[in-house]
């Protein structure tokens, strides 16, 4: 594979609130590492996708005002309870309502899309919000096999995953507009992009979104390390693999023009409430939703009342207990203690918090309480 460890400077490359290289963040308040947000745009029973998307905007505005570092949305398909099928569209809307917080994908599932399309979408986002856009990429489909086949117009799903390094190379070439002479794509340009700066009379920012690799196993960890890219690990649904994957990333890391040292964030499911009982009541809705998803019955996020009344089978109860063991929940101080312990155990450079609950009010309250626990700036 060609060396694709190219320039990834962002609008804050020369310093500023977004970090010295557009990747590393600065911890706020008393937090040991930067705190960020992963939003799944969850849709609860009795709520519409419109309401869920409005909650996402409210959440982005709130977390920006409280000093969270970045706000990412994830790509999922054919899941009634998750309305984040089009990350670029959602990010464009949120970009128009925020000013400082970094925005990105956690992530775009690269095998589902042509690399040129992603380069165009995120080049457009970068033009809308210069210096604030991250491009996180995953190799999983973000859905079931049948839906992935419909997305890709092919039933050869393993082929897409196996070709991930080549697709990544192609995408970065489009972002940098640097296909070598003689390449079939050397005359094709992702616009908005660097080609506008080299066109006659053109004036175009040279910055582009930094590329992150996402993963829940060792494949992307090793690839990110080899290429000298930042890495995001899905601790929130693959906790048993977190430390091995981060160790592999650090062991594989080769300095690049992007990073001179490893930088890894982990996604963590966490929800704070005013008391422990309410926190347990809220996180149980997400656990029941996962039970249904894992048993082929995806649906809207159930209400706390339905989750409390649900008669879990012994097998389902075992799954729920295991699932909730990796959800940091309770009072604000308890959540702070759990997050601090996670940083110590993993050495993560950044925490990206996802709060899954039925209603938007519970999620907004959780991020407020966590911000208060760490002494993050008060809302302006």
**Structural class of the helix and strand makeup?**
alpha/beta
Question: For the terminal residues, how far apart are their CA atoms?
Answer: 48 Å
Largest sheet: 8 strands, parallel, barrel
Beta-strand share of residues = 5-15%
Question: How do the strands line up in the largest sheet?
Answer: 1-2-3-4-5-6-7-9
Number of helices: 14
Uncertain residue ranges: 1-20
List the secondary-structure elements in sequence, H or E: EHEHEHEHHHHEHEHEHHHEHEH
Oligomer: single chain
The residue fraction in helices comes out at: 40-55%
Number of strands: 9
- Averaged pLDDT, please? 90
- Radius of gyration in whole Å, from Cα? 20 Å
* Overall 3D form: globular
Describe this structure in words.
41% of the residues lie in helices and 13% in strands. By secondary structure, the protein is of the alpha/beta class. Strand 1, helix 1 (49-65) and strand 2 (70-73) form a beta-alpha-beta unit. Helix 1 runs parallel beside helix 14 and helix 3 (115-128) crosses helix 6. It is globular. Residues 1-20 have low confidence and may be disordered.
Can you tag this structure with a few keywords?
about 375 residues, alpha/beta, 9 strands, globular, disordered N terminus
